[in-house]
Design brief:
3-stranded mixed beta sheet, 2 helices, 26% strand, elongated, methyltransferase, Class I SAM-dependent methyltransferase
């Protein structure tokens, strides 16, 4: 059993730099066709998942909270 609990406010407060770093990587992705797919594993708050969706990707974000895997289709 895991002793880690998900706290979205704590994540946003202490780990927002993750999305900031990832945002620069999104700009480096070569767009070869419309409707490209992306799986965002460990999506955290979903900030990058939402950015990928806004940039035209068909994206699913997945993260594990409290030992459970949850998927987000944004």
């Amino acid at each position: 059993m895991s002793n880690i609990t998900w706290d979205s406010n704590n994540y946003s407060k202490h780990f927002s730099f993750v999305a900031d770093y990832g945002s620069a990587l999104i700009d480096m992705i070569e767009r070869t066709s419309e409707g490209m797919s992306c799986l965002d594993l460990g999506c955290g708050s979903g900030k990058l998942t939402a950015q990928l969706r806004q940039d035209g990707f068909d994206v699913i974000g997945m993260a594990a909270f409290g030992g459970l895997s949850r998927g987000f289709n944004r």
